[in-house]
Amino acid sequence: MSAEAMTLFSPELAARLDALVERYPARRSALIPMLLYAQDEVGYLSDAVIDEVARRIGITPLDVRNVATYYSMLRFQPAGKFNVQVCTNISCMLRGGYKIFDRFQERLGIGHKGVTADGLFSLEEVECIGACCWAPAIQVNYDFHDELTEEQVDAILAQYRSQNAGGR
Ligand code: FES
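^ thats the input. predicted complex w/ FE2/S2 (inorganic) cluster below
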């Protein structure tokens, strides 16, 4: 069996990663985009993901970990189905970001990087997500919610619970 046939990624992702490593003069420059695409598909950077990305680039798994641990958007544990990222950077902090983060912690019963027991939600305190003009802001998977107050937290959680119940 060829190395490609042994991939744990989908054929589409494997092809995308092949193209990425060819695009850069130094193969390891493709590391972070490769990890982001792999995380999108697998959900987190498991040992197997790290091993395969390392093999594709021609570096060691330890090299991958040493770089990846600097990037807060990369995860080494599975996230919840809905990953709630609350910005507490300066603009959001000044407009109540910590109150919102505290409310999510209280309602979900988890802290930073925690995952609810049912696997539905995970929570992260993050740096600026580029929505400073509409602070305070959060991101749930790829959805933005902005100009928030802590009173809106329950409605946001209810929205995703009902989305889950509807199978979306
Ligand atoms: S500081 Fe929160 S989005 Fe920029």
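The chain has seven helices and four strands.
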